[in-house]
Structure formats: structure tokens, C-alpha cells
């Protein structure tokens, strides 16, 4: 998806921001590439919106530099930056029509009327609002407002489009649909999008890369797959999807492998390629394993690399999936196991003792 | 950015603030200073002295006027707020449509010239006035009633009329803010309409009641038109005396001392009402 | 049974509300009655219909001067207090700054200060400054008491203004001034007009401050006050009052219409109580 030789468009170096005694950002370094769909993901108050507003020019960093397209943005106000924003509230000008809203910035550029009209119509077609230019702002539905806000930003042909939780005001179904549309539009146009969101699912499905932020710092910057499969710490792991944490310790290296003792599951040797850089095996204290990486073995024919035994303590039925709570020996908290409800597979009742299959490559190490 | 925001905010409000400082703070400080000076016929003696306050607080005529003003203002406030509450309640809970129209109709009489409104009450309450004529015509009375005009009752009635919209609006706003599901919750938990009113509605409406009490009480103390037109000699209030001191009597320092004394009393009563309301209304807002 | 219990207070409240409205309108109804009554004495029974008192107004030179003065005072007070009110309302709605609450309460203080105190205080200051009393001094006083009303009306207009609208305009390349002209001004304009109308109406009706601060040239209420002493002048005063009432109500309706339009423009439901909420 990203071009083979990524060209940086935004370079953030050592960005900090304080509001009085509160430190909103504590040193952000990141590079965002041309044509990339980049997400800032984190819980509320982690500083992601502040960072986005800094790139837009609404906030100035306390220290550090922001480069956009190779130019230092220090002292450059929002109205002279090559970025355009889709606001969380959409900020549709209520006294203007759809076309006037979309053409707002072009009028500022003093383009001829005919050209503005043409560009506006093009932008509206792009977001499937062709022919609605004459509508008053208050006649629009939530989804339409979102599209107008997007068209208004795109018509400016910015180097970077900034999106501040653009889907949070929409209902679930519309949100899912807009996720797909936004992603397709971005790929078609090849413009860099930076999305701020607290919804991990949204970030995973749309982004090329994601920066997960906690308390003013980037905890991990990686592709969605890397984030899900190899989270760097327990916080990231539990913020993205569901993760079972189990006590573990390293018992020593054995011919290029790391021997692990996991009391709840058993012992295993992990290929050293799976050990993250910078992890000190001596300080290793737990492992993580995703619910879908654990399997309840329904009959003896199913194969698993390793097998442990557990007792089902509860089930939750989700239609396509069933989530089991399973107690493993020597582990206080129940683990969660998700199983696809395929044909002929019945639900194991609580109280049953079941074999639980697992494997080395699904294990994530934490210290 | 924060310091920038602070600067911009202060810069923007500075014209208004400056105006208030020049036209409100400075004059009030001037009045305060004046009250410690004395008037020697045509000249002002600028030696600081408490003589004016001594005179204001010791001479029976002034203390009588101050206490009568207080009494009348408190009665006016009580009457106005008590009369206003049911209207505000009716508007908020029983009028479903055209609330705005009702509110508009309530404010219209307020926009009649104040002087003429007071004067018209004189016409209504007078010896040959509308009320007496009507009552005589209906055969209820034989001689015109004389206790209607030129006394404290007339002042109370006229002021209660003048301040009605000011009493209704804050209470209405407070009632409108009450989440209706709270009332349903109270009913669901077993309260009847009366208990519900005293346990939920009234405490939550208290900020509005306190606001309207203060909005009516404070300015009525300072009114001198109503007492002059309908009050007779029994209905004269302290504001009339202040006006006389600044006018005919040409003793502005004494007038200033009277004005500040009555303001001080009103302020302390207001503070008491405010605290009482807070106590009764609980931790609302 | 239960619904019967419920409707009982409702019915009595409705009766009370109507009685209350009669009380409110009693003096107001009399105004046009006596204005069109063919008698020099203000009392019942009415004797006949006439419009001659309006004619008398037309011929009273002193009245025309007072009307002119009131218009000048009203217009000046309306413009000045709306400008000052807009500054304060905008600052309060948009910015955080030190002592904000204190400063705002101080500016709004004239709302709860007895007018006689305001009038007397200004009088004392002007006396000390040696400034002669004139229409200018009346305007100074009226601006002081009108500004809080302007703030109350304009606050709702400025508060309804989503800050991201300004940011969006800025983000789309517009300057600060351009943003003010293209976004802020059109959105608050109805509020501004409404404020102008209300403050004009307040100034037009204000008596106490005008009474203390007016010089040789009097405003309309001060003129009316001087006429109340002459029984012969009363019917024409009633006619004048009727005209003022109709004018005030028209201005109010206009102001309310503008306020609602402002709210509608911003896509919010106009609250029934306007700026007082």
C-alpha cells in the first residue's frame, strides 16, 4: 500500500507541550510519509488531539519542531499551512449552503467564480454529494455533514488532511460504511491522511501505520498487524483487542531458543527471532496470548502444538463466535478463549474440563 | 498560547471594563468619599467625619424612613415572588405550546412607560377611580373606599405589579432546567404530588427563587416614583429622602450617607437570603 | 381517579394565570381607553370617542423637542452599549482570563443596583468634575445600565458560536479579520440587532437616571413627569403613552424575531427566555 520508497511529508522532532503545570505532550518523534493513512490512537487525554491541532497550526509546541513538506512550521499560522482539517463537530458554517461551505477556502484564494463552482462540484461528486450544493447546512444528516466537511478540506488540495475523530458522531452502521469509503478515497487520491481516534478497531481497519499514545508519549508506532501481533508492552496489548496475560519466566537459552516456564500452560522453547529487541530475558515476567490463539479441542482429532487442561467457567454467545472463560491451573484470573461457531460445533457447557491447545508463535513476551 | 489567550481576553473586555470603572466604580468611590464630607450651605467641607452617618442613624425621621422602606420592600418582594411562583410553575409544567407567547405577554406591560404605569394605578385606586366606581356600580359599597390609595398598601401593589416579570423569569428558568425524569423517579419511589413538590421541585427551583427575590428586593428600596405618586405621606420611602437631599435640601453628603447606609442594609439582607436559599436548596449548582 | 386529581391543580392554575394576566394588564388597558376618551378628566365613565389628544401632541412644541432628545439619547445609548456589550460577551464566551468572574459580575452590577444609586453616584462624580448636565451625561448613565442587558442578549449569540467554526475558517486559509467578516458577524448579526432594539427601548423608557442627569434639555419620560402635575395635560399624556407602548411592543417583536432568526441560523432551538436563561 505504501510506496516502495516512502517519502516523508511530516517530520515531528522532540515535540513537547505544557498547559500550565500539565504536560500534554512529553517528547514526540515521528515521521509520516507521503500518501500514508496514519492514525493517532489512544485513550482520551493522551495528547493525540493536541498533536493533531499542532500540525494544523491551532496550537504551538512548547519545544520541538514540526516540518511539513520540508518546511519548518514554527510561527506559521493555520491559515498558511498546507493542511486542512475535518473537525470532530464538522464545523459546517450554518449560515452557508453546502456549495458555499465547500467553496469557502477557494473564495479566500480569490479564484474566479466559475472555477470555484467547477471545483466545488467535483469535490461534492467525490464524496457522493453531487447535486446537493444548494442545500442549506441545517438540512443535512450527520453522515452528509461529515461528507461536506471532507469535501471542504479536499477541495483545497492540501498536502495533508487532518481528521479529528470524524466518525465518532455517527451511528455504528454508518461508521463502518464511512471507514471503508474514507480509506478508498484516500487511496484513490494518494493524499496523506492523519486520523485521530480512540477507537482501536477504526484505526486497525483504516490505517497504514498507527501511533499508539499514552500520557503524552508514543508507546508504539507500527503497522496494524505488528501492533496486534507484537505489542511492545502490556498497555498497548490491552488497548488493542483482548489479551490474556499469564505469569512466566525464562529458564535459560537452549540452542538459539529461549526456554520459558508458564505455570498455567506448561513449558516451551521460543525461537529467538520472536524475542523483541531490547528485551532482557532475565526481567521477563509475563506472556500474552490472544483469545483466538487459544483453542478448545473439541475432539481428539484436532491438532495443537501444545495442550493444557482447563475448566470452562462461563460462556458468552456472540452469534458467529463464542467466548469462553476458562480457568487454568495455578492461574487466578480466568483466560478468555474465542471459538468460531462452525457447523456442527456445539457450545461446551460451564463446568466441563477441556483440553486447551496453544502454540509458541502466538506468544508475546513482556517485562 | 494560554498567556496569549489571557491577553486577548483581557484586551477584548477592557473597553467595557474601563467604562464600568470610570462610570460605576469611580462614582461609587466618589459617593463614599462624599458621605464623609459635610455641606456648609454652598460649600463642601472636605474634612473627613462620620457626622453624616451619625445624623442618618440617630435622627428618627431617617431611621423611620429606612425601616419603612425595608418593611415595604420586603413585603413587596414576598408578595411579588409568592404571586409569581404559580405563574412560572404553570408556564413551565402545564403550558405545552406557545410558552414563548406567554412569556412575551408577561413582559409587554413592563414596556409601558414606568411613570404612566404608576400613574395609572393611581387612576385605578383613586377616590373616583376605576375600582371604586366599579364596586359602587355593582352595589358592593356605598361610599368610595379610601384605604386604597396614598398609603403603603398602594406602594406594595404598584411595585408588585412593576416587578412581576423580573420575578417570574428567573423562577421559570430554574423550573425549566429541572430534569423531568427526576419527578417521575420521585413518584416511582412513592411520593405523591404534594410531597414530590416539596422534596424535589421546590429545592431544585430554589436558585431561581433566590434570584428573583434579590432582583425584586434590591431595586425596590431605591424607588422613589411609586412612593411619591401613590404613597401619600405614610408611603414615602428612603429614596425620596435621598432625592430631596440631592435636590431641594442641597445636602449631597447627607444624601450619600443615607444612600450608602440603605445599600449596606440591603446588601446584608441579600446575603442572608442568599445563604438561606443555598441551605434550603441544598447543593444545587 | 388519578388523572382527575392531577387535572385539578392544573385547572386552578389556569384560572390563577388568567387572573394574574388581568392584574398585569389592568393599567395597560386603561392607557388607550383614556387616550381615546372624549373628556379632560381621567376617570370613569368614559364619555365618548375622540382622537383629538393625538392632535394635541402634534401641536406641542416642547414635546417634539423631548422626542428628538429621547431619540438621540436612545440611539447613542443603544449603539454604545451594544458595542461595549459585544466586547464583553465575546470575551466571556471565547476566552479564559484572570478575574473573569469578578470582572463580569462588576460589569453586570447595574442590573441589581437600585437606579437611584447609579444616578446619584454619577451625579456626584459629574459635579466634582464640573461637567455640566446635558444629554451627554444622560447617555453616559444609560450606557451603563443598558450594557448588562446587551451582554445578556449577545452572550447567547456568542456562546452558540462553535469555536471550531472559527478554526475551520482559519484552517481554510482565511485571516482573522476575514473570519470575523465571513463567519462571526453574519452569525451574531441578528443578536446585535436584537440588542440594539432592546437597549434603545430601555433608554427610551428610562426615567430615574434621566431625571437626575438631564440638563435643560429633557428626555421624553422627564417631560411626561413634568406634565403629570397638570391635570389638563393628562389626556394627551395618555395618548403619548399609547404611542410609546405600541412602539415599544413593535420594537420588542422585532427584537425577538431577530433573536430567533439568529438561533435558527446557528441551528439551535431558540430558548423561550432568550438571554435571561
CATH topology assignment of the largest domain in chain A: Rossmann fold
Q: C-alpha Rg of chain A, in Å?
A: 25 Å
Shape of chain A: elongated
Counting DSSP H or I runs of 4 or more residues, the number of helices of chain B is 13
What can be said about this structure in brief?
The complex is a heterotrimer of chains A (367), B (285) and C (277). Chain A is α+β, with helices and mostly antiparallel strands and 367 residues long.
Task: Explain what this protein looks like in three dimensions.
The complex is a heterotrimer of chains A (367), B (285) and C (277). With 367 residues, chain A is an alpha+beta fold. Helices cover 23% and strands 34% of the residues of chain A. Chain A has two domains: 8-238, P-loop containing nucleotide triphosphate hydrolases (Rossmann fold); 244-366, OB fold (Dihydrolipoamide Acetyltransferase, E2P), CATH 2.40.50. Chain A has nine helices and 21 strands. In chain A, the strands form five sheets. In chain A, strands 6-7-8-3-9-10 form a six-stranded mixed beta sheet, sandwiched between helices. In chain A, α4 (113-126) crosses α5 (142-154). The longest helix of chain A is centred in the middle third of the chain and has 18 residues, at 172-189. The radius of gyration of chain A is 25 Å and the shape is elongated. The model of chain A has no long low-confidence stretch (mean pLDDT 90). Chain B has 285 residues and is mainly alpha-helical. Chain B has helices at residues 2-35, 51-58, 60-94, 99-107, 114-125, 130-137, 152-162, 164-177, 180-188, 193-221, 225-230, 238-246, 252-281; strands at 38-40, 43-45. In chain B, β1 (38-40) and β2 (43-45) form a beta hairpin. The longest helix of chain B has 35 residues, at 60-94. Chain B is globular and about 70 Å long. The mean pLDDT of chain B is 83. Chain C has 277 residues and is mostly helical. Chain C has one domain: MetI-like (MetI-like fold). Chain C is built from eleven helices and no strands. The two termini of chain C are 37 Å apart. The relative contact order of chain C is 0.14. The model of chain C is unreliable at 1-5 and 269-277 (pLDDT under 50). The interface between B and C is large, with 87 and 87 residues.
